[in-house]
Design a protein that fits this description.
- The mean pLDDT is 81.
- The protein has two domains: 219 residues, Rossmann fold; 44 residues, no CATH class.
- The N and C termini lie far apart (97 Å).
- The chain is globular.
- It is of the alpha/beta class.
- It is found in: Membrane.
- Its main location: membrane.
């Protein structure tokens, strides 16, 4: 009887433990059900059929944080990006470059006004807004299937368009010469794109963006894992294939955005400079000028911006 009683105690302890674990599962389900949800699409938030007709962005007093009531990571940003402009975003680590891209897509709580082709984005359905802005993140993910499924999941384009997008993105230039290993539209893709390198995944994501033809393209250090020669070729392809597209590039290399129309410099979540590269390089004690002067490609960056390094130094002393 003593042995049976001790065995019964162990059995009750095990039952109690299993019951507690089951209650934890119920608590998790309740938390997921009651967590904050993004606003659902409404008829009033449906944009007109012609929208967006261009990539004109006007941002006024934009502030953002990663949680409601949390510490702000962006502070009262105000700027205007005209249609077709190529804007480079630079700044030191933690300056708010990636936070800016997330706020444009309303992925984090924001305050202020963002006008996209005359419509305030806070009044537009999220699915419509995100379908008309393409972003290539630092580590893009791919879907399991074939490369064709990743480039055109809804079957909207023919193979000629997809192959042209791959060629423009520079994928064919980073492949092995062995025909058996060449990547084609029928190449299988594992979950998350694990059978491709990070650089190849970034190039495939760029090809997908070329196919979509969105009016606003955001490159969040999308070429960080690609060598400089391939990066240069990709930037040339973007200028040729996406001439009427507004391109916002978060720079990993200063040479990537050296010939942009404008440079946006962020520091601690604040906009400190926003002008053409030539004007910023002539500004004495400027943030962008200090970044360029500290890099090992100073002379090349000055020449890309159309500025003589010696003349810029003379000009800075009299600014």
């Amino acid at each position: 009887m003593a042995i049976a009683f001790s065995g019964m105690i162990l059995w009750w302890v095990r039952i109690g433990n299993e019951f507690e674990v089951s209650c934890n599962s119920l608590e998790r389900i309740e938390n997921y059900v009651n967590c904050e949800q993004e606003p659902k699409p409404t008829e009033a938030g449906k944009p007109p059929a012609y929208w967006p007709s261009s990539g004109h962005l006007v941002v006024e007093k934009l502030s953002a944080s990663y949680s409601n009531g949390g510490e702000q990571v962006l502070h009262d940003l105000s700027f205007e990006i005209k249609s077709g402009e190529r804007v480079g975003v630079v700044g030191r680590t933690g300056s708010g470059k990636s936070s800016l891209t997330l706020s444009l897509l309303r992925l984090i709580p924001t305050k202020g006004s963002v006008m996209y082709d005359g419509l305030a984005t806070e009044h537009v359905n999220l699915n419509a807004l995100r379908n008309h802005i393409t972003i290539i993140p630092q580590q893009p993910d791919l879907l399991s299937g074939t490369l064709r499924d990743n480039l055109d999941p809804f079957g909207e384009y023919d193979d000629a368009v997809l192959n042209d997008a791959l060629r423009s993105s520079g994928l064919y230039n980073v492949q092995a010469e062995n025909e058996d290993e060449r990547i084609t539209l029928d190449t299988p893709v594992s979950s998350g794109g694990g059978n491709f390198s990070l650089g190849q995944r970034q190039i495939i994501a760029l090809a997908r963006a070329i196919c979509r033809q969105s009016k606003v393209l955001i490159l969040d250090e999308a070429t960080a894992a690609i060598d400089h020669s391939t990066d240069t070729m990709i930037q040339a392809s973007i200028r040729a294939e996406l001439r009427d597209v507004t391109v916002i590039t978060v720079a990993h290399r200063l040479k990537t955005i050296g010939d942009s129309d404008k440079i946006m410099v962020l520091d601690a979540g604040r906009l400190v400079e926003f002008d053409s590269p030539s004007k910023l390089l002539k500004k004495k004690d400027g943030f962008f000028k200090s970044l360029v002067d500290q890099s090992g490609e100073k002379e090349q960056l000055y020449l890309m911006a159309g500025v003589d390094p010696k003349e810029a130094e003379k000009h800075s002393w009299f600014s």
